[in-house]
Amino acid sequence: AYPYKYIFTTLFFFLFLIIILPFQSFSFPETHSLTYIYTAFSKPVELPGIHEFTAMGLLDNRMIDYYDSTIQKKVPKQDWMKERLQQEYWDKGTQSRQSKQQWFKVNIDILMNRMKQSSTETHVLQWMVGCEGDEDEHGNLQFKRGINMYNYDGNDFLGFDDEHQVWVAAADAAVLTKRKWDEVTALKDYTKGYLEKECMEWMKIFLKYSKMQLRDASPPEVHVFTTKAKQSSIVVLTCLATGFYPKEITLNIRRNGRILNKEDGVKSSGVRPNHDDTFQRRDYVEILRSDTAEYTCEVIHPGSNMHKEKTWGNPHTCPALLGHTSLSLQTSSYNTIVPLWALCHKLSPDLQRHSGALSDLLCTSLSTSSKQMLHL
Predict the structure, then answer these.
(1) Which residue of 316, 317, 322, 330 is 20 to 30 Å from 65, comparing CA positions?
(2) Residue ranges per domain, the chain?
(3) Per CATH, is 4-216+338-370 categorized as 3.30.500.10?
(4) Does an H or E element contain 8, and which?
(5) Closest Cα partner for 217 from 305, 138, 105?
């Protein structure tokens, strides 16, 4: 049966990553991390949003790319990843993760046979690999620690001691793997070098790209205004956010604090381009002229860390519209919703404590003769 007892610990783990960590403030030295987490089940799990194989990359605990056995493709989860990295990077990343998917499938079978487990049960194999670095006030990044650990059915299985350059068995069934991998000097040398150097180089690149987006971000101008409707008893309340970049934005019209939706008559232009490579969005709703409730427009622009609210005054007034006023006829859509599957993946408590860091080029950067990962 599926090990449901791990679902709740995983739920809290991802809530911590997504909700709490982004709002923490840091002082120098500031610790950064690049982490990749792979999760594979021994057979398909009949639960919504749970895939037989999943891989995700996280920079400072924010998802930057994603792959699962259903879409069979490595995709960006941040604008700067999509804009800065060439298609060749994503193509090679897809090939790498497809290879890892097969590696996990073979090695779950190896572990099940080694432990004499039934194929009717569902088992889970995970790999967490990455690096952490400290950034000083001058922007210099220095290696802090590396992480390379395997987990089986929610328990620690095997890890790499970066300092002493040896594999450490955390379970009796892992002793055989430890002995076999310890004999491969090239694997130990490469793993240590990757964690301390190559992973750190990719972290520097990704941090640079993410900071460039934040630096280039432009907050929106927010305007609220009132216009006449066809019926004299009705007015139209319009909220315009314009001149912002990047394009992700949330706009809410509230009545006495409650967010209005389509059922309340709210209409939206959607996000559309301006002539200067920025974007705009316009939402509006019709209300009775006699309505005395307080109406506010809430605008959240993550790219520039802006959160602003503006209140409509007397519905009878129609202030002049400022800023970007022309609306392009070309619509533009973009989906940045964080998938809820991320809240359901199982991670062991030990893996949760080590939300550290690593680049996904472990296989693609190896020479042709050493690209194949060793079996457990």
Answers:
(1) 330
(2) 4-216+338-370, 221-311
(3) yes
(4) helix 7-15
(5) 305
CA distance 375 to 52: 19
Residue 38 region, left (φ>0) first, then alpha (ψ -120 to 50), else beta?
beta
The token pair at 243 is 């001149």
Return d(Cα 64, Cα 206) in angstroms, integer: 9
Amino acid at site 77: K
203's enclosing H/E stretch is helix 199-216
Dist CA 136 CA 138 (whole Å): 5
User: What CATH number belongs to 221-311?
Assistant: 2.60.40.10
Which amino acid is present at 312?
W
Q: What is the pTM of this model?
A: 0.59
Question: Is residue 129 within 8 Å of 148, Cβ to Cβ?
Answer: yes
Indicate the angle between helix axes 175-182 and 185-193, nearest 10 degrees: 90
Can you tell me the distance from the alpha carbon of 322 to that of 315, in angstroms, rounded to the nearest whole number? 18
Say how far apart CA 56 and CA 13 lie, in whole Å.
15
